[in-house]
Amino acid sequence: MIHLKTPAQIEAMREAGRVSAKALRRTGELVRPGISTYELDRFAENLIRMEGGTPAFLGYGGFRGSICASINDQIVHGIPSKDVILKEGDIISIDVGAVVGGWVGDNAATYAVGEIAPKTQRLLEVTQQCLRNAIEVCHEGNHLGDIGHAIQSLAEASGYGVVREYIGHGIGHDMHEDPNVPNFGKKGRGIKLKNGMVIAIEPMINLGTHLTQGPFEDRWTVFTADGSPSAHFENTIALTPNGPVVLTAE
Ligand code: MG
Fold first, then answer.
1. Structural domains in the chain (count)
2. If I label 220, which of 57, 66, 155, 164 is the partner at 20 to 30 A Cα–Cα?
3. Is 246 within the bounds of a domain?
4. Are 133 and 201 a contacting pair, CB within 8 Å?
């Protein structure tokens, strides 16, 4: 069941979005060769708590971090660790959410660690553009499939693989609410979008095949099937009569 939000509820969700966005941006600024994903996680959790929130991911389904830190061919759900030290040429996807006042915000971005290969840089840029294109179609009367189509059409035209198994989601009092928001789809298909919907759109785009593997021993981290790098960008978006509003903004 989709929980439509009132304008006052959307206003309240802005604070969760703001804290989530600040945690992502500030943690992203620390990305550099030599830092561990554990240190990034500690920083993000402290920031969220100092801003009056609680980390949305910590303890979720037993997850042990406040961020997901996914390196290179890891698509999503990488577990922060003292043993994972970033090095020049890596990319890292940081996914972080905060709960404030009972509302959840969720966002992600992929960062370059120092200098990265031009083809990987391009992957990051195109994935971010996929997210922008998807946000643009978030208007009442459009269809859920329009969002997936906006992402898939640009990603595949660029020669990339669109992850199928992991998708965006409705968000509100719970981190994962209806509807599911796939990163693939056909124009005009799926349910109609309505004002009051709040959704997390999160394209996961691979430089190679769309196929995934894992999780393995750690029961969380998902990898590309061919070892190619994967990028991930996410925002929490409210549909309003004035158009889409990015709630994960400072
Ligand atoms: Mg999400």
1. 1
2. 155
3. no
4. no
